Amino acid sequence: MALNLDARQRAMLQDMGITFWGPSAPPAAVPAVAAAAPAEASALPAAVATPAASAAEAAPQPPTAVIATATAPDPQPERAAPIPPAMDAAPTAPQAASADAAPAHATPVYRAPAAASAPWFMAPLVHAYAESAAPDAPDAGWLVLVECADPADPWAGDAGALLNNMLRALRLQQHPQVRIAPLTRQTPGSAAGHPGLEPLAPALQAALATHRPARVLVLGLHAARAVLQRSEALGPLRAELHQLHGVPAVVSYDPAYLLRAPHAKPGAWADLCRAHALQPPTH
Questions:
Q1: This prediction's pTM
Q2: Alpha helix locations (H) across the chain?
Q3: What dihedral angle (degrees, nearest 10) is formed by the CA atoms of 63, 68, 69, 70?
Q4: Which one-letter DSSP state was computed for residue 174?
Q5: Per-residue model confidence as pLDDT tens digits over 19-73
Q6: What pLDDT score does 246 carry?
Q7: How far apart, in Å, do the first and last CA atoms of the chain sit?
Q8: Among 279, 202, 275, 278, which Cα is nearest to 245's?
Q9: What is the distance between the alpha carbons of residues 100 and 97, in angstroms, rounded to a whole number?
Q10: How many CB atoms lie within 10 A of CB 14?
Q11: Residue 24 has what pLDDT?
């Protein structure tokens, strides 16, 4: 089957990088024909020179286009095209960029260490339901660790109201030993404005040793990372049963997050049920 392509079609294939192979005159003969045509045309009478010149102009074009198409694709432009000059300069751009241009890239890189270095504190424990409070019975109670905007009042705001509903869904309002440990993350020097705050690690260890809860419920990704000294995402932390000084601990969603993502509430309920089913630790 013959492909009758004119010069325009062949040029389009060449621009698209498609090599077209077709019958053509030998490459060496093309320049000779193209160079001899004007000389022969000038030697002929005017009546004959015109058709010959037209034929000379039309005839060399197809072979020339074929040869150009066959030799034009060069691997160099194809390798260089995907790497524009702007990308070559990208690795060094942050060093030369001004402070106004950097925040979009600097935010996750340079602010994260500052947030991670802010110390965590634990406020004094709060009886979730004071009307049901009773003397400690070893290995029977709950300890709920949750980040609170107001360490003095874990029930404050919509997040506190949702936390109350979560615990009441397990009927913990009838449990005599449900304690909440409000957690807060402070910058150095600002903890003085909240009396009773203690560094998280020693305060948590003392609370576990004193009250010996049957289980610990840690709510929120940031609180879980601070308590467990881990860096995984919330999903892996939720899937694992943890141990805090011999006490089993379950990680779940922060009430503040559940307000923004109601679709996660079934998962939070499953976590609460799993914590409720935990057996007291053996000593």
A1: 0.57
A2: 7-15, 29-43, 46-58, 61-71, 75-80, 85-88, 93-96, 103-117, 157-169, 200-211, 221-228, 234-239, 255-260, 265-276
A3: 90
A4: G
A5: 666 665 455 554 444 444 444 444 444 444 444 444 444 444 544 443 334 444 4
A6: 92
A7: 89
A8: 202
A9: 8
A10: 19
A11: 59
Q: What is the DSSP letter of 277?
A: T
Copy the structure tokens of residue 274.
């799993």
CA nearest neighbour of 202 among 160, 258, 234, 245: 245
What does DSSP say about strands 120-122 and 178-185: parallel, antiparallel, or unpaired?
A: antiparallel
Residue 130: per-residue pLDDT = 79
User: Tokens for 109?
Assistant: 């890189």
Token pair 């060094």 in the structure block, residue: 92
State the residue for tokens 């621009």. Answer: 15
Q: Which two tokens stand for residue 255?
A: 């009430």
Read off the pLDDT of each residue in 62-87 and give the average, rounded to a whole number.
42
Residue 33's pLDDT is what? 43
Distance between CA 83 and CA 78 in Å, rounded? 10
The answer to whether residues 143 and 217 touch, using CB atoms and an 8 Å cutoff, is yes
Is 247 in a helix, a strand, or coil?
A: strand
